[in-house]
């Protein structure tokens, strides 16, 4: 039997330099846990999978709101594994992530990898709506198939709007039924881990980082707005994370330097 569930998080500035979590609603397989943040002034929420999901036919969603001045990190305890449904008529699963950040807010969306297991079908959408002075750190990683198996069908779409205007809108598809060439030399070239890192920061209004390669299979691209996108391929999840972590560390240093008076 398929599952429909929506987990909700609301973060608000408490007026004392910290962030409170007045809304922390778990649902179905999406269990939310308040965890200790290593960063002063930030709230942290960890998504814990309470059961195997998403399965074919499941409809899952996570909604995160960072109100004006709030600072919140949302991460996960383990990778999410998309699995086939219980029967041939289960249909594809869907997983919707909806993020919003108000004036002066910072939202960090840092889940673990999404693994597309053989025979699974998943449509994933991530939508972020940002105020003009909001900051967003977003990381997405997909692993195409578990060890030694082919990938399932996976489609992803990332849409970001800032101050009501489009900043980024991209869609990707992999696996059986995806447009031809997705695994060719000009796209994945046989790699099985693919990811992206998006940093939106008003500090980049003072100057965007220059486009550049970050090794043989990763690139940094400035966007038409105060944001940069890093896209990367790797042979496995560990190597992919190393590339994205190094890129994020460098970009945070650049944005911090731009914020200095």
Describe it for me?
There is one protein chain. The protein has 261 residues and is mainly beta. It has one domain. It has one helix and 18 strands. The strands form two sheets. Strands 3, 4, 6, 7, 9, 10, 12, 15, 16, 17 and 18 form an eleven-stranded mixed beta sheet that branches. A seven-stranded mixed beta sheet has the order 2-1-5-8-11-13-14, with no helix packed on it. Strand 3 (30-34) and strand 4 form a beta hairpin.
Features:
261 residues; mainly beta; 11-stranded mixed β-sheet; 9% helix
Short description:
With 261 residues, the protein is mainly beta.
Topology:
Blueprint: E1 4-13, E2 19-25, E3 30-34, E4 43-49, E5 59-66, E6 71-76, E7 80-82, E8 93-101, E9 106-110, E10 114-116, E11 121-130, E12 135-144, E13 153-162, E14 165-174, E15 193-200, E16 212-213, E17 218-222, E18 227-234, H1 237-259
Organism: Streptomyces glycanivorans
Pfam family, one: UreD
Subcellular location: Cytoplasm
